[in-house]
Amino acid sequence: MTRVLRFRLARPAPLLCRWDLDKTYLRSEFDTLRQLWRTAWERGEDKVAVPGVPELVKALKTAADRHGRTIATYFVSASPPQIGKAIRDKLALDRVPYDGITFKNQLEHLKRGKFRNLREHVGFKLGELLRGRRLAPPGAHELLFGDDWESDPLTYSLYADVLAGLLPVAALGVALRRIGVDPLVVPELTTLAAEVRAGGGVERILINLARRTPPIALRVFGPRLVPTFNYFQTALVLAAMGHLDPVDVATIADALVTRHGYTSRRLGYSLDDLVRRGVLTPHAARVASGALRRARLLGEVRPSPPVARLREWAHDVRTRRRAVLPPAALDYGTIFETFPNLARARAAEGKS
Amino acid sequence: MPTIALDSLGGANLEMVRAAARISIATSIECLLVGDEGRIQAVLDELEYNPEQLGVRPCALATESALAAGLRAVATGEADAMVSASSAQDCLTACSRALALLPGVRRPALAAVYPRQTEYPGQDRLALLLDVGASVRCGAPELVQYALMGAAYARRVSKIAAPRVGLLGMGRDAARHDEVLAAANAALAAHPGLTYVGEVEGHELVRGRVDVIVCEGLVGGVAAGLIDGLTSALVDVARAAGEQRLVWRVGMRLFAEGIERLQALTDFAHYGGAPILGFDHVFITCHARADGAALDNAIKLAAKAVRAGVPAGIAAALGGPAQP
Fold first, then answer.
1. ipTM given for this complex
2. Of the spans A112-116, A318-322, B236-240, which averages the highest pLDDT?
3. What is the mean predicted confidence (pLDDT) over B30-38?
4. Is B46 left (phi over 0), alpha (psi -120 to 50) or beta?
5. CB-nearest partner of A270 from B3, B44, B51
């Protein structure tokens, strides 16, 4: 059997999609104590999903089924399990297929008097990701979905670097202590990190810019992390990676137009933004926009003049070259300098 | 939601890019920045912005200006209006090439929006002076059209039901009129669609007696320049005086806050922008020194003028067919 044929017959690696809940899937508001209190008592039907996200979760499953790929969807939430019923109800209302959901046992931290752990989510999430990885099929690829509200970019990057073998266990311990993860939890996390199987790994970290953080601020997390402003952009990125088909992107765009007041112009602007930021090649944008135009979700465009086409080609080559660069270890020192609020331990040491 | 094309001067007008980013987050207005994509994105990368409401269009050719490319977007319906901080003459020339004059319009008018005293509560603190330089000289029919266009603008944008219109001149004495002023005065007084209050003199420009003042481009340009430069001239005089006597310097210090407020009130750079009237689309010119808040206001003004249907209002006032 030739190499090409073997490659074609080989079953694609399973795909794990791990989703954060608040601000990523749900439009949770807890900036004030009042909002926090209201969120805690909301019922499933009161909760609001970020536009396009239920359709995206479903589209990933549909596309995987269409191509005979294995896919599993997990939610990891730092919310307490006491609000689990409302969240499960919401996911059921949205008819979102998922394989598991984990909550943070805040009550346990309260009982033990570990008040600092109530707001420290990196240790919790990293632990859950690593535990999940131990149970994952060998060679599984992962897509991680989070937001720019708290520490998802950092948590996911640490996890991705551990899986890629780019972050030694000792360095992970140092980073976790600097973040302010409970010192009693750090050894458990480093042990878990040492145990995770090689193979597969994190393909992309997709960060929903709920706070509209300037995308350049997240460049310290490397090209593996892709910040997007809405789930139409996320769908376009996933389509370019082959996880969605153009028809799935059109379904998500249609949901945004019919249910959330998006216009074809706004969709067009979102698509152009990805190309300008170098996230999407002009070629990938053309493929996606073709399907969207056929579905009458994007307006017609006039053909570009030759100079613009030449510029597009150069852009295409640059973006593709950047995409094939081998992954490099992140400089966590720079990350902590850029986001000093993440390095809580150092701030605390400075004060004492 | 209206889409406003913004002239980024090829990406060099960083203030315009920043204004677009702010507007994209704070309002429902959609902005279309026109210019060098790379340079614009380099600025946007550092800012908070909403890409759903912020598009970027490159110029089609290397020789095409952002102003021309933006107006092309307006003419083809990709945008509803345009805001530019290019020189008023460049804007006028580009508008004449890309946009169509409304039926019946003899000449477009460049308007200036400036602050004035208010006479009653709720009166708009800004008045409209036109023409301030679209053409140098004109005849009485053009002055009447300026009055109709200015009044239509004031009705739609400033929400004044019956804007009071005045003709800028040297006084009510008929001996001081030339033929054009005399004919315009008579035509304006006889026009049933206008609330004409007669002639106004230079000192009445900043009073609340009239909402729209019409004049020839040469006169309007001089008047607008005078208002613009008045405070800076006052500040220069005061500074010179302060250098001569210590007592005057102390006095200047005491009045510093008041002078700053006066400067802010009369500085054109603080106001959103001024419309070019007579074309089938809204066009707002900004002062070259326009700061962030002024550009924000200019974009909001353009959106307001689009929503209010200013071109349609002008077409109706001139007796032409109503525009959508």
1. 0.81
2. B236-240
3. 92
4. alpha
5. B51
Whole-prediction pTM? 0.84
Q: Is the CB of B45 less than 8 angstroms away from the CB of A230?
A: no
A214 interaction partners in chain B (CB closer than 8 Å): 45-49
Return residues 91-150 of A near B (CB < 8 Å): none
Distance CA A347, CA A341 (A): 8
Q: Within an 8 Å CB–CB cutoff, is residue A67 touching chain B?
A: no
**Chain B interface includes A5 (CB < 8 A):** no
pLDDT, tens digit, for every residue of B80-127?
Answer: 999 999 999 999 999 999 999 999 999 999 999 888 888 888 788 889
What distance in Å separates the CA atoms of residue B38 and residue B58, rounded to the nearest whole number?
Answer: 9
The answer to whether A207 and A152 are in contact (CB under 8 A) is yes
Residue A242 confidence (pLDDT): 92
CB contact under 8 A, B55 and A272: yes
Identity of the residue numbered B46: E
pLDDT score recorded for residue A185: 86
Question: If interface means Cβ-Cβ distance under 8 Å, which residues of chain B face chain A?
Answer: 1, 3, 25, 30, 37, 41, 44-56, 58, 60-62
Mutant choice from A50, A231, A266 vs B, greatest count of B C-beta within 10 A? A266
Q: For the beta carbon of residue A211, count every other beta carbon within 10 angstroms.
A: 11
Which range, of A1-10, B109-118, B268-277, averages the lowest pLDDT? A1-10
Q: What is the pLDDT of residue A184?
A: 85
Whether B55 and A269 lie within 8 Å, measured CB to CB: yes
- Scanning A310-349 for CB atoms below 8 A from B yields 311
In chain B, which ranges are E strands? 3-7, 30-34, 54-57, 81-84, 109-115, 126-130, 164-168, 195-200, 212-214, 274-277, 282-285
Question: What distance, in Å, lies between the first and last C-alpha atoms of chain B?
Answer: 15
B193 and B317 Cβ atoms separated by less than 8 Å = yes
Instruction: List phi, psi (to 5°) of B266.
Output: -100, -10
Is residue A209 within 8 A of residue A215, CB to CB? The reply is yes
Pick the residue from chain B with its C-alpha nearest to A307. Answer: B61
**Whole-number Å distance between alpha carbons of B299 and B272:** 8
Where do runs of H (alpha helix) occur along B201-309? 217-244, 246-266, 292-308
Q: Of A117-126, B17-26, B146-155, where does mean pLDDT reach its minimum?
A: A117-126
Please answer whether residues B67 and B86 qualify as being in contact, where contact means their C-beta atoms are separated by less than 8 angstroms: yes
- Which strand ranges, in their side-by-side order, compose the sheet holding A15-20? A100-102, A71-76, A15-20, A141-147, A201-208, A225-228
Per-residue pLDDT for A4 more than 50?
Answer: no
What residues contact residue B302 under an 8 Å CB cut-off, 6+ apart?
B2, B4, B81, B82, B83, B273, B282, B284
